[in-house]
Amino acid sequence: MGLNCPIESNHPEMKQPKLLSPHTIIFLVLIVAAIGTWLMPAGKYDTIRYDQDKFIVEGPDKHEELEATQQSLNDLGIHIELEKFENGDIFKPVTIPGTYQRLEKKPQGLVDIFLAPVKGMIETADIIILVLMIGGLIAVYNKSGVLETAIGSLTSKLKGKEAILIVVVMLLMAAGGTTFGMSEETIAFYPVLVPAFLIAGYDLLIPIAVIFVGVHIGFMASTTNPFAVIIASDTAGVSWTAGIVTRLITLGVGLVLSSAYIIRYGSMVKRNPDASLVKKLQGDVKPPFKAEHKEGVKLDFRNALLLTVFLSSFVVMVVGVSKFGWWMEEMSAVFFASAIISAFLMRMKEQVFVKTFIEGAADLIGVSLIIGIARGVTIIMNDGLIIDTILYYSSDLVSGMPPALFIVALMVVFFVLSFFISSSSGLAVLSMPIMGGLGAVIDVPAETIVTSYLFGAGLMFMVSPTGMILPSLAMVNLTYSTWIKFLWPLLTMLAIMGAIMLYADLYLI
To answer: Which of 56, 104, 492, 501 lies in the 20 to 30 Å Cα band around 48?
Structure first.
């Protein structure tokens, strides 16, 4: 049986319906979240955090200090080694099982709805600055034409073998996702890869698919990802190496399945551009970045040097994040420095550089707004005290199920929870003590609980409006409905693969 791809329409001439922009979609999600604070019960779990050789237990009307010992953790039903708190592996407040209590509702009103995006932009200022730095850098490089020349040269060499580009990029993205938890950093790759795939004859769905799906296949099969498998394993009280065989198998199967699906769709578009979902659902979309193929143009020494500086920026970013613990500030500085160095090599006048850089940054203001509004959704739910309520009822839903049903149902629960809690580390420290306790009652190993969390969260992060998908779609001028139309068959297959792998992990591996 062949892989399912989106079905072609027999009526391409039909007028396409007007589609909502990513900005409108995420703002509507924010409004729905606010309505939820009026309809759902408010509640909160107690939490524990480590602070200078003592534990701080906090809850509604509670603030107490405990001695930082293993016994203190055991008494609270938290199966985490004390060392994990002391060395900083657990750096967020951890939920204490069995402490949920109902509270007076804190419904979020009209003022809160309009404040939430502003607060979200303040909280995500580091990510927004990174996006703006990338926009400025790309604008500077577009002045030189070096990217067009390099991409044209690459696609000429791959002529007739463009599928190799899909596989290579998928592997690189998955490697970043599985090892150091690459996520927001993917924003930097769109200006480079979108022109390459367009020149190769694909549509705008292909670059976002290889980047976004690749990274999240890596997340689902996390091996050393500190923000997912390590913190979840630590919180569940098990070594991060437990269950790694299952995850490595998942990585291989997931990459083969996803690559085959994307290559099949890409081949269909190359054969018949009218079969593109982008064209059917959105019409002729203007590419967000230059995608002109220049025949016979070769890189001279200056352009080769510029290209080296440009590519080195990404290498330095990846090494810095994975080896030295860099985050948004350092990554932004790398791209800013790269822009200045490149302008110097291009002998660009100061006024031209400043104007070009600002114009490039301005092109990505829309992306930055989405990031802020998306964080506003989480702020609304936190302030409205409904996130812990969702966690409480979700855990109650799967409690008492037989192991085989429990572990698959738990993947679905983590899938849903990831919509409301878009932080992988935040979801782990909130949910793992509770879900791990439920699993222990029915003899489901903690490592299988962790794998279920990775599968459910990884699948949701591919589509969640509160995650990075809407900013990514804005980067390539695609709508959310176009993405869902393309992805749902693959997402279904990956979910089935996840269920099978969880069952195998429980009984066979």
So the answer is: 104
- 142 backbone φψ class: left, alpha, beta (φ>0; ψ -120 to 50): alpha
Q: What does the pLDDT profile of the chain (509 residues) look like in tens digits?
A: 344 444 344 444 444 556 678 888 999 999 999 999 999 999 999 999 998 889 999 988 888 999 989 999 988 888 888 888 888 888 889 999 989 999 999 999 999 999 999 999 999 999 899 889 988 988 888 777 776 666 666 666 767 777 888 998 899 889 888 987 888 778 878 888 888 888 888 999 999 999 999 999 999 999 988 889 988 998 888 888 889 999 999 999 999 999 999 999 999 999 999 999 999 998 888 877 765 555 544 566 777 888 888 888 888 887 887 788 787 889 899 999 999 998 988 888 999 999 999 998 998 888 889 989 999 999 999 999 999 999 999 999 998 889 999 999 999 999 999 998 888 888 998 899 999 888 888 889 999 999 999 999 999 999 999 888 999 998 888 999 999 999 999 999 999 999 999 999 988 76
Crossing angle of helices 244-271 and 446-461, in 10° steps, is 20
CA–CA gap between residue 77 and residue 321 (Å, rounded): 34
Answer yes or no: are the C-beta atoms of 138 and 190 closer than 8 Å. Answer: no
Burial 221-248 (b: 16+ CB within 10 A, else e): bbbebbbbbbbbbbbbbbebebbbebbe
How would you classify the pairing of strands 101-103 and 94-95? unpaired
Amino acid identity, position 181: G
**Sign, CA torsion 156/157/159/164:** negative
Cα(46)–Cα(51) distance, integer angstroms: 16
- Say which amino acid occupies 363: D
Give Cα 65 to chain centroid, integer Å: 36
Q: Which residues contact 294 (CB under 8 A, 6 or more apart)?
A: 148, 149, 152
DSSP strands (E only) in 26-96:
42-44, 47-50, 54-59, 62-67, 94-95
Q: What is the DSSP string of 212-261?
A: HHHHHHHHHT-SS-IIIIIHHHHHHTS-TTTTHHHHHHHHHHHHHHHHHH
Residue type, 128: I
Q: What is the pTM of this model?
A: 0.85
| Cα 69 versus chain centre, distance | 35
